Amino acid sequence: MTVDIALTPIIERIAIFIWPFVRIGAFVMVMPVVGGSFVPVRVRLLLAVALTAVIAPVIPTASTPEVLSVTGLVTMIREIAIGVTLGFLVQLVFDAIALGGQVIGMSMGLGFAVFLDKARGVNIPVLGQLFLMLGMLVFLSMDGHLALVQLLAISFEAWPMGALVFSTAVMTDLLIWTSQLFVFAMKIALPAVTAILVVNLAFGTMSRAAPTLNLFAVGFPVTMLLGFAVIFLNMDVLVENVTSFLSTSLSMVSALLESS
Fold this sequence. Notes:
The protein is mainly α and 260 residues long. The protein has helices at residues 7-30, 41-55, 70-108, 126-141, 144-158, 168-209, 215-233, 235-258, and strands at residues 114-117, 122-125. It is 75% helix and 3% strand. A hairpin with a 4-residue loop joins β1 and β2.
């Protein structure tokens, strides 16, 4: 007895979830906190499947190409690019926070003290890792992960599946936002770097007045202690800056979706 199974209706039914899953999966792989390599791939995959099961039934239906076609391959690449872009825009703020911590660590003489960043698989200074962990805690405390999921769901309305997204205006906004990385890092590192610079100038003046004084043995611990003191006294401002940067990034993603 032969049973004929029509594959076309099954593929069309599955395609309703396949296309959202591609964008959501790419987003989960690069989003802050969850997208780090310290989170197992299976956990991220299960999270992407769960978000797809929740978001896919409520997104607007659109004419999508066949999965097994050249047009389907192009659409899949486009959806991956959209998901990666949404996660990268917010992840960029965490890179700025880590960069600010690295600049402070280099100024304090802690450039040799490195720590393995499990989120990226590279070694970064300890202060950069400390600032990065602080940014993650602030991000979770302000429900940034929930805001990201909400923006991801809105992206299916602003950027329908299969539509042309990366126009000249969008690319210009992305490049401008990328340039803000150094601005954010400078705002984080400026107080400590300025204080350390003043101390170094003072030690330079002392070396001219007393050439026999061993300033290396004195200046290194003083610079390190001063750096920690400035970080401790500036912690409230640092948290406010991190909160402001994260809020700005979420607002920027929202504005980018609304302008499309």
